[in-house]
Structure formats: structure tokens, C-alpha cells
Amino acid sequence: MLNVPPQAFPAPSSQQRVAAGGRAKVPLKPGRSLMDWIRLTKSGQDLTGLKGRLIEVTEDELAKHNKKEDCWICIRGLVYNVTPYMEYHPGGEDELMKAAGTDGTDLFDQVHRWVNYESMLKECLVGRMAVKPIAAPKGMLPENKVLGASAKDLTPSYDWFQTDNLVTIVIYTKQKDMNAELVIVDCQDKRLRGEIVMGDHSYLVEIDLDHAVQEDMAVNIAEKVGKVEIVLKKKDNIHWKMLGQSLKSHNAFIKRTDRGLFYRKCKLVSKKEVTHDTKLFCLVLPKSTHLRVPTGQHVYLKQNIAGTEVVKPYTPVLPFLPLDFKEPSHHDGAHIYLMIKIYSCGLFTQALDHLQIGDYISVSNPEGNFKKSQVQTSEDLFLLAAGTGFTPMVKLLNFALTEVSCLWAVKLIFFNKTEDDILWRNQLEQLALKDERFEVQFILSQPTKDWVGKQGKISSSLLSEFVKRSRKDSKVLICICGPTPFTEQGVQYLKDLGYSQEEIHAFTA
Ligand code: FAD
Ligand code: NAP
């Protein structure tokens, strides 16, 4: 099914060789790709040296396994023998060795919390820690940084009531300015999960409902008072004696990074060509899901590839660039549009390209550290994008032109290899004609001789030519996204040109 040449993979430019989030990546030896690892885990080899036994590991025992040739790491209370994985780790052996013989949970969360290690390392599982070395047990109340008062008073709470045919769960967030993007609700097979995002924490209602409910539900938000109502329709109009059984993380207000990623299955409803190698995928959320991906955030897609769950991030876009920015564009909220480049040797994108209309794929809750407030006060907005690094700029552009009243000018500087690679070129050019605040500059690194536009790669001179304040003291925001080295170089050039850290936002994993 997969087009994965075993020797040439990953190619020198592969993302498996290129750091996400600015970490140095080490070239993998031939035969050490993710696909090769998946093959090894399916080979039946004993990868723990314990012949399939699972053991209880003490801290002293864990500490003994701290060498490359005998390396155990604990992640969330489970201990893995990572020695067989060393040569396959895209971040290199030294990165893994940082956690050798210790609890690597924090390090793992900092770098790639979204990687599905349970699936990737399942054949390396040695056992469970005798005493869990996790610092803060999940569900404990954190200091309430969001609201700046005592945690107990301001921790959200919930209540419920019923009528003949409805069950309503009311969450009192005690936070003003609640909005639809901060509320994520899923109700699948009697299991209700409602997450309220509050800064870097979130509150969760997670219940195995007492009785079945219908597929469609409503979420009502009283923004000013921070009240969220989840309205479920009973399947049978009977009186419920209780709401249901609380699940593991129910009623917990904890750091978002301490929650695992939650996925729901979305149906692929359309797939349209954008360029020769890039497609616009449209996924529809289940009726029983309420989820809005905020501007500048990404989701993770999860697919089972050759028996292993593989996860990759993608940034939702709009179905098209709205040309009339006078009114905020209305989205039904049920559809997620993803603009994805299909790499001929790409493990994940090849599998994505093989999905048929009607197939399902798992989509996570949104993540990302971009805040709309960064744009809200800017007068000059510069968007530096390379290739599919254009994707976060789509919603950002829409938001800036629609909702930022002080905005004077938005300039997109779009780096591509060839003219054929430019995403939504027509739409961008039309928008530039229509809205005088918007300007687009295409820069090609590998143009044909017919190209009369700008040529080159990101450089200090190109940036000083195109990134200029419209007034001496205008408030500037520069957003940058593309291959990691592009982004890192761009940030450095901008700093050298005198822009401050606060004036730059780099999109990374
Ligand atoms: P891999 O298996 O990682 O790479 C395989 C092959 O792909 C390589 O052999 C190489 O030939 C080719 N390849 C990979 N990267 C490059 C490159 N930069 N230049 C040239 N060749 C390359 N991608 C999107 O298309 N749309 C998005 O909206 C999007 N959003 C993202 C958001 C975030 C936060 C991040 C970190 C990444 C995003 N990506 C996006 C990239 C995406 O996550 C995958 O890395 C990408 O789809 C490649 O996955 P793959 O498994 O197919 O390729
Ligand atoms: P691409 O077509 O390979 O490259 C686009 C442009 O960037 C080309 O002009 C290319 O020039 C240039 N470029 C590539 N690597 C460079 C480098 N190391 N230094 C300077 N310029 C470089 O790009 P792509 O395949 O679409 O890849 C897009 C990237 O964006 C992926 O890495 C993806 O992960 C990332 N992305 C990140 C996010 C996020 O939110 N973090 C979102 C979407 C996409 P050359 O001719 O020299 O190659």
C-alpha cells in the first residue's frame, strides 16, 4: 500500500531529518526510517530482552540502565527499553540519552508530547514503575494562574438538570470572555467529554452517561458570565436518576500539557487539487462534537500505518480566501479544511492521499501557542511563508483584515521553489486588488527563465527590502512559517534587522 523505498528513505531533505521546534536533527542511517522501525517491531524480535515478560521497575533498577547499549526510560509511569530504538530516533541518540535511566516524561512533553510513543514503543515495554515517579498526579488543583485568585474559589464547577427529553450540563467557568474556541465537547457511545480551555490549564467534565443520548447536541455559551451549557437529547424520554459515572479525569482542572491528546474520528468528505502536489482535504466532525480550531493553531492527525499509530501536525485553513472582508466570514464549524502537500516519499502524506471519500481519520484537539491578541494591536502585519508554511497565514490574514481595526497594512512574502508551487496564487492576487491594505510578494528559489518576479531565498537583504514599518513607530507583528531552517534563519535575520522578540512570532511544532 505504501510507497516507501526502504533504502532511500528518509531522503536527505526529509522532515525526519529536519528538526521540529528548532532541535538539531541527526541524519538517520539508511534503513533506519520510521517505516523500518515499524517493520522491526512487527518482526517478532524480542526488543526488551525479557522474552515478553512485564516487570515492576524500582527507581534504583531504572537508574542502572543508563548506557546506550542498555538504556531504559520511564514515560508516564511506564518503562521502555529504548536501546533498539536509538538508531531510529530522529532527534539522535544523544537526545534519548538525556533521559537514560530516569523519568523522561517532562523532557518528552517539552519536545514532542504528540508523538504516539505508546504505539511506537509498545514492543519495547519493560513494565511499570513500582512507585510512579510523576511529579504532580493528574487531577490535582494547580495554582490558579488564569484567574489570579485562590485556586479553590475560581476552579470551574458543574451542575446538571433534565427535562422530559433533554439533559443539560452547566459548567460555571468563572472566567469572563468565554468563547466557542475554548469549549471542546465530544459525546460518543454514552461517553461525554467536555473540555474548557483556560489559559494553559483546562477543566474537564468526563462522564459515562447513565443513558443513551441522540447524536446531535447543542453547546450554548454565555460569554460574559463564562457559563457553558451542553444540551443533550435523551434517546428515551425516561427520568435519569443520575448523570452517570465519573471517568478518570472528571472534574479536574489541570495543565493542558498534562492531558493526553484526545481524538475523534472525522469523515473525509472532499479532496481537491490545489497545485500539482498539494490538496485541500475537507473533513467533517461528528455531529456529537463541538470543536473550533483557533487562528494559528494546528491539530494532529493520526493514522494506523502498517499496524502502528503515526501522528503528524497540520494547520487548518479556510475553504478559500474570502475576498470581502467587510463582514466576519461565517463557518459552520462542522468542517475542517486542511491544505496538505503530498510528498512522493512521505510516510504520512502518502497514506493520507490513499484515503477515499467517506473514509475516517482521527483528529486531535487543537494546540499551538499563537494568541490572537498578538495581532489585535498591530498596525503593520508581515507574513513570511515558505511552501505549506502558508497554512497558518490563511486564517491569520482573514482575522487581521476582518477584525483588527487598527491595521494599516498586511504584507505576505511567499517563498516557493517554482511558480507551479504557489498555493492559491489567483486568490491572493485577487485579494490584493480588492483590499488595498493587502499586498503579496512572491519570491521563487528555482524559477524558470520566464519568471519576471523576485528571485532568491530568505536573506537579510530580501527582508530589509520587504519588511518595513509604514511609520517610524508603528506597531509591527511579523509571523513566519516554513521548513525549520527557513524559520530559524528568518527569525535571526529579523533580529539582526532590529526587530524585537515580541514583534516576531515563529510557527513551530
Ligand atoms: P516524511 O515521511 O516526514 O518525509 C518524507 C519525504 O517527504 C522525504 O523523503 C522528502 O522527500 C519529503 N519532504 C518532507 N519534508 C520536506 C520538505 N520540507 N521539503 C522537501 N521535501 C520534504 N504540512 C502540510 O502539508 N500542511 C500543513 O498544514 C502542515 N501543518 C503543519 C503544522 C505544524 C505545526 C508542523 C510542525 C508541520 C506541519 N506540516 C504541514 C508538515 C506535516 O506535519 C508533515 O511533516 C508533512 O506532511 C510530511 O509528512 P510525511 O510523513 O508525509 O513526510
Ligand atoms: P518547499 O517547497 O520545500 O520550500 C518552500 C521554499 O522554502 C522554497 O523556496 C525553498 O527553497 C525554501 N526553503 C526550503 N528549505 C529551506 C532552508 N533550509 N532555508 C531556506 N529556504 C528554504 O517547502 P514545503 O515542502 O512546502 O515545506 C513546508 C514546511 O513548512 C514543512 O517543513 C512543514 O513542516 C512546515 N510547516 C510548518 C507549519 C507550522 O505551523 N509549524 C505549518 C505548515 C507547514 P529551496 O529551493 O532552496 O528548497
Question: What features would you describe in this structure?
Answer:
There is one protein chain. The protein contains twelve helices and 28 strands. It has helices spanning 34-41, 59-64, 93-97, 105-112, 117-120, 151-154, 347-353, 373-376, 391-403, 425-434, 460-466, 484-496; strands spanning 55-57, 66-67, 70-75, 78-81, 125-129, 157-162, 166-172, 183-188, 191-198, 201-209, 213-222, 227-234, 244-246, 252-255, 263-273, 278-284, 289-290, 299-305, 308-314, 316-317, 335-341, 360-364, 380-386, 409-416, 438-444, 454-455, 476-481, 504-506. A seven-stranded antiparallel β-sheet has the order 19-18-22-15-16-21-20. Strands 8, 9, 10, 13, 14 and 17 form a six-stranded antiparallel β-sheet that branches. A six-stranded parallel β-sheet has the order 26-25-24-23-27-28, sandwiched between helices. A hairpin with a 4-residue loop joins strand 11 (213-222) and strand 12 (227-234). It is globular. The structure holds flavin-adenine dinucleotide and NADP nicotinamide-adenine-dinucleotide phosphate. Residues 10-11, 13-16, 20, 298, 312-315, 338-341, 343, 345-349, 388, 391, 483, 509 line the site of flavin-adenine dinucleotide.
